[in-house]
Amino acid sequence: MRVAFIHTKGGVGKTTSALMVATAAAAEGKKVTVFDADPQGSATRWAEVAEQRGEQLPFAVTFVTAEQISALPRQEDALQIIDTPPGNAESIQSAIDTADLIVIPSGASPMDLDRVWPTLDTVTGRPAGVLLTGVLMHTKFYTEARQLLEDQGVPTFYNAIPQREEIKASFGMAPTRLHGYDDVYREIVEIEEM
Ligand SMILES: Nc1ncnc2c1ncn2[C@@H]1O[C@H](COP(=O)(O)OP(=O)(O)O)[C@@H](O)[C@H]1O
Ligand SMILES: [Mg+2]
Questions:
Q1: Contact at 8 Å (CB) between 162 and 179?
Q2: Angle at 37 between CA 131 and CA 162, to 5 degrees
Q3: 144 alpha carbon – ligand 1 mean position (Å)
């Protein structure tokens, strides 16, 4: 299965979610590969820094261009994850076109949500779901965000990722705690089995 993490806005948790879902899948014994389609190379750097500290990630992170995405060989027994840049880069469209599932990570703030709508426009016709990330669970923003997405008929992951300093600090490490990404991975598996 090929899962792309897409959002037109930066800083919403695409790279973090891509690597944490990859970690959760690997922890369940799944073969995983991460393709880094962001020219900024944050996912690639994450893996490099981890390796320098002697903390190999349980999956490979490979840097890819837009053309390479379109030509990636399918590996049916593996989870292939594509991390993408913000904006309108060509690689985003290539990732959307090749993905079996699109995950749209988004904060629950009005500014993040405002950019979910144009993101949904770019992924029309593909199976896609919004994953609320970096949220403070017992806040009005979180409750309202869920309500808004439901009212608009936007498929949304049942599980959300809380705001945690430990998640922020996990850059350049092999994460040990999954902070709910294990439940998100299970939802992805359920979608795959549907
Ligand atoms: N659940 C979270 N709690 C706290 N900080 C987070 C969380 N998810 C992501 N972050 C932080 O937010 C920033 C942006 O995340 P990142 O994954 O790089 O987003 P994107 O790839 O969409 O630009 C990073 O500093 C990251 O560590
Ligand atoms: Mg990123």
A1: yes
A2: 25
A3: 21
Whether the CB of 172 sits within 6 Å of ligand 1: no
| Residue 98 CA to ligand 1 centre (angstroms) | 25
Residue 184 tokens, joined: 């998100």
The residue whose CB lies within 8 Å of the most ligand 1 atoms, and thus the one to mutate among 168, 173, 177, is 168
What does the alpha-carbon distance between residue 85 and residue 11 come to, in Å, rounded to a whole number?
10
Alpha carbon distance 178, 174 (integer Å): 11
Q: Which of 63, 55, 62, 14 is nearest to 173 (CA)?
A: 55
For residue 163 the two structure tokens come to: 């705001």
pLDDT tens across 56-90, in order?
A: 999 999 999 999 999 999 999 999 999 999 998 89
For residue 75, report the distance from its CA to the centre of ligand 1, in Å. Answer: 28
Digit-coded pLDDT (tens) for 94-150 = 999 999 999 999 999 999 999 999 999 999 889 999 999 999 999 999 999 999 999
CA distance 17 to 8: 15
Tokens coding 124: 């029309």
* CA distances (Å), origin 39, targets 25, 26, 32, 84, 112: 25, 25, 21, 9, 22
Instruction: Decide: 47 in ligand 1 pocket, CB within 6 A.
Output: no
- Helix (H/G/I), strand (E/B), else coil: 148: helix
